[in-house]
């Protein structure tokens, strides 16, 4: 939700506060304060209206012929997934757990794409029970696996990009995912012998791209590669999944990606590949700017010669999964616990330290902030994607933070805060654990008889 405050038409519930570069961060201060009053900290809060607005922008700028999927890996909160299903998106999932969430959230099975390399038993059970799900195949070995399992799911073949990736989180020619061009001959042999319903291709080349030219380079490269692969395999694709990649402005110097230019390119590519349909799988773009990570100041400290404070959250609950450098580049957190802030002349470079006994637990470094005191509440913007679910939140045996959604002034619980003792759930002392003998083995070294 970090964005420039263009005029005075901002919601009466919002307050514009300076960021380190002079750009303004628009924060729904009143509702965030109420969330803290009800739920405490640390807490994730998600603006549902912002999620719907992001989807509406995609609908406005992109052609209807482009199928848009929500990638659950960005944030698999059941409540948020339900909102995105209601918005009419399909789902991109990468595990049995994400599949279960997508189904519970209301995504139709025939609009779920299973991508990624996980083909565990739990995933195969889902595929057997849900033949409508589309499966992205990552290797020739996986094609053989699907054939041996007799699965009836439609298949798209993932291709390793043969073009340069301009993404912050790159997945270019050196990616570990997908078939190389040299693999296609073996792929053709498997398809000749097995009854596998291949309906298209999947080319993912990276994420967090703010340059429209970079996105265009990726989608053009993906279409070109898919059409060449289709010719090599002697097939006419029905779907070409071009991945995602649309970035959001995490830093004050970043600008919103230009959807007009990208939409025009997608219209041209849609006409080129017709009657095949293009597919985009977007995770970060719909949800990142809707999220706020709320933490409270516990103590004052110093760090590298600067004023610093310790908060009750940290990088165990909001990791920097893709190495975006949010610690030093991201917007400063907003102080929401006061009705007025100190004059900007008194602001100073400040470090925000997490509550872990870990030197690297520094959610924000050298951010221009007003003087902070214990009890102040900080709201980190742009926290809706790759937050809790992508973090090692069990470190130090902290329970998960609360998760809350809000629509205007209406507040909804998505995940209740658990007490610290909840970390003991599903654990047992060895003395209380039920012993399970290993059949056919004696307790000798290496399980030998």
Describe this structure in words.
- This protein has 2 domains: about 15-45 and about 290-420, Beta Barrel (Lyase, Ornithine Decarboxylase, Chain A, domain 1); about 115-280, Alanine racemase (TIM Barrel).
- About 25% of the residues lie in helices and about 25% in strands.
- The protein has 11 helices and 21 strands.
- The strands form 4 sheets. Strands 3, 14, 15, 16, 17, 18, 19, 20 and 21 form a 9-stranded mixed beta sheet that branches. The protein has an 8-stranded parallel beta barrel with strand order 4-5-6-7-8-10-12-13, surrounded by 5 helices. A two-stranded antiparallel ribbon has the order 1-2.
- Strand 12, helix 9 (about 260-275) and strand 13 form a beta-alpha-beta unit.
- Helix 3 packs across helix 4 and helix 8 (about 210-235) packs parallel to helix 9.
- The chain starts with 14 loop residues before the first strand and ends in a 34-residue tail after the last strand.
């Amino acid at each position: 939700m970090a964005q420039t405050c263009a005029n005075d038409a901002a919601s009466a519930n919002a307050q514009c506060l300076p960021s380190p570069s002079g750009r303004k961060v628009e924060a729904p201060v009143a509702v965030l304060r109420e969330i803290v009053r009800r739920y405490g900290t640390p807490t994730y809060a998600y603006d549902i209206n912002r999620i719907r607005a992001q989807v509406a922008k995609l609908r406005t700028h992109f052609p209807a012929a482009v199928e848009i999927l929500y990638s659950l890996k960005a944030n698999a909160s059941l409540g948020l997934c339900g909102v995105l299903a209601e918005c009419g998106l399909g789902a991109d999932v990468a595990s049995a757990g994400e599949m279960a969430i997508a189904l519970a959230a209301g995504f139709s099975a025939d609009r779920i794409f299973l991508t990624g390399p996980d083909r565990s038993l739990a995933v195969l059970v889902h595929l057997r029970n849900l033949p409508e799900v589309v499966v992205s195949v990552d290797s020739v070995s996986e094609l053989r696996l699907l054939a041996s399992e007799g699965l009836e799911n439609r298949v798209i073949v993932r291709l390793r990009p043969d073009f340069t990736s301009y993404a912050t989180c790159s997945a270019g020619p050196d990616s570990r995912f997908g078939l190389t061009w040299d693999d296609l001959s073996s792929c053709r042999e498997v398809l000749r012998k097995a009854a596998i319903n291949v309906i298209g291709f999947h080319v993912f080349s990276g994420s967090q791209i703010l340059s429209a030219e970079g996105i265009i380079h990726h989608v053009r490269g993906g279409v070109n590669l898919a059409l060449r692969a289709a010719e090599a395999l002697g097939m006419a694709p029905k779907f070409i999944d071009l991945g995602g990649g649309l970035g959001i402005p995490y830093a004050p110097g970043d600008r919103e990606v230009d959807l007009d230019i990208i939409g025009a390119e997608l219209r041209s590519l849609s006409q080129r590949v017709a009657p095949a349909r293009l597919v985009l799988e977007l995770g970060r773009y719909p949800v990142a700017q809707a999220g706020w990570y709320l933490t409270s100041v516990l103590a004052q400290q110093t760090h590298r010669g600067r004023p610093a404070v310790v908060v009750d959250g940290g990088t165990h609950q909001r990791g920097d999964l893709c190495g975006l450098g949010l610690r030093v580049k991201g917007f400063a957190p907003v102080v929401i616990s006061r009705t007025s802030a100190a004059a900007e002349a008194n602001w100073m470079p400040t470090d925000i330290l997490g509550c872990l006994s870990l030197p690297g637990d520094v959610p924000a470094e050298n951010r221009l902030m007003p003087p902070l005191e214990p009890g102040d509440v900080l709201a980190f913007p742009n926290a809706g994607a790759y937050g809790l679910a992508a973090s090692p939140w069990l470190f130090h045996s902290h329970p998960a933070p609360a998760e809350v959604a809000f629509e205007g002034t209406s507040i909804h619980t998505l995940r209740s805060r658990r007490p610290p003792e909840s970390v003991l759930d599903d654990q047992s002392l060895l003395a209380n654990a039920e012993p399970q003998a290993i059949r056919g083995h004696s307790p000798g070294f290496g399980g030998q008889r």
